[in-house]
Amino acid sequence: MGVSLTSPALGRWFCHAIPFAILTLLFLYTSVRLFHEWPLVLPAQRSQQSSLWELEPPSPSPVLTALLQITSGILTGCRPGVQSCNPEGPLPSQIGPELTALVVPGKEEPPCLGPQGVLGRMMSPFLACLSPEGDVQLSQYLAGWRELLRFLTPLGSVFAFATSEAFVKVTALEACVRGPDALHYASLATMATWERQAGLLELPGTAPRDQARASGSRTLLLLHRALRWSQLCLHRVATGKLGGPDAGMQCGDAYSTALAEHHPWLIRQAARMAILALPSRGRLLQLACPETTEADARVALARAARVLEDVYNRTQSLLTRHGLLQLA
Fold first, then answer.
1. 60 near 71, Cβ under 8 Å?
2. Tens digit of pLDDT for each residue in 74-92?
3. Residue 201: what are its φ and ψ, rounded to 5°?
4. The whole model's pTM is what?
5. Phi, psi dihedrals of residue 198, rounded to the nearest 5°
6. Spatial CA neighbour of 274 closest among 222, 224, 219, 233
């Protein structure tokens, strides 16, 4: 006797099948790459200073480390040997007038935008990193990234892989900011100038065999690419039409716009499947701005995306000025 699967049963089966399919694709891809000359990169050891971090991922196994090495492209946006994949100019403004009707003059801000709110904790250091002189202060930039990772990590399997790699890069750059050469790592401009003078910058199109010895400029460039996709994803979730595409499709569209063309086919498929497993748009808005209405959450998330956009554009301008877009 045949058994027909109801629509809810199919949905549950699909949700369980996605993570398995992703891991299978990544395992196959890992097996192929391990037979070639792509070196395995272990996460940098946490320095004493980095113990101040509140967010700490578990120590990865060798297999997970290999997977993180491969899936780092999901967030950073380039594969080894590829020329710069950043546009040669600032990101066009992503925040338009579509949410104007939802803003009520004089209305109290939702708690999520306050000093202890999910979005407020992220926005505050990112805003503080934009110095009046037109530079980017690295300590505040990294503090903003820490809060962004705290927000993104619970959102799905694609973020679980990608944010683990981003955490390694943030920790590595923090070691520079707090290390013996901290004076030279106060800002993006001082770091770029000093590393160029000291001969620490990688040749264009080459990747260091030991990622722990990568220049701070290259590490920041990879984080910069990740920030663009994160900003696009959050913006499209916030400004999507009611009843329109859900978060998975919106963030998938952002992935196609920002990163997909720089990835091999297998990684593109794995990333798109993982993105489909994102929480629903309503759930994501609840995580971003709990205990408030959907309209208020949309406005709050759009404001956070605008801050990320401002940071991206400032960083893009500085990387262009210092000739760093070709480092990876």
1. no
2. 455 554 444 444 454 554 4
3. -80, 140
4. 0.72
5. -85, 0
6. 233
